[in-house]
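note to self — DONT lose this again. spent like an hour looking for the file last time. sequence + predicted structure for the chain T wanted, 142 res
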Amino acid sequence: MPASLEMVKIALQAYGNGDCEIALALADPLIRWDERASRADGELIWGQENVERAMRRYLDSWEEYRFELEDIAEVGPGRVVGICRERGRDDHGVPVDRRFGGLLVVEGGEVTSSCTYRTPKGAVRAARELGAVRFASPDRAA
């Protein structure tokens, strides 16, 4: 298994277990976290500290939460797509069973970007379109 695939698998499993620190220990300090394509209330966030706050806020908002990594594949060099499922009860007690795609980019041995999409196909399409593009953070020149 390629190192980037193994790294993303570990990070996603840690996130699913609520271990945000472990998930982010594998990330670039200026990680890009983008959930706008998967959730109406999704945000674009930069940096480990900000991402950890966002992760905790999201995970703590559920009455009951389970995260499952159904499948994972490298779609291009350093571009890993995970098919993810969330189940549980939201903060209003409403049952949720949501399947979505995640695209994580690994560069220089660190996760530099994590984006979620409404469907796994959306994540695969984004991975193929990404090519060699590097996201430029507000703190880093493109």
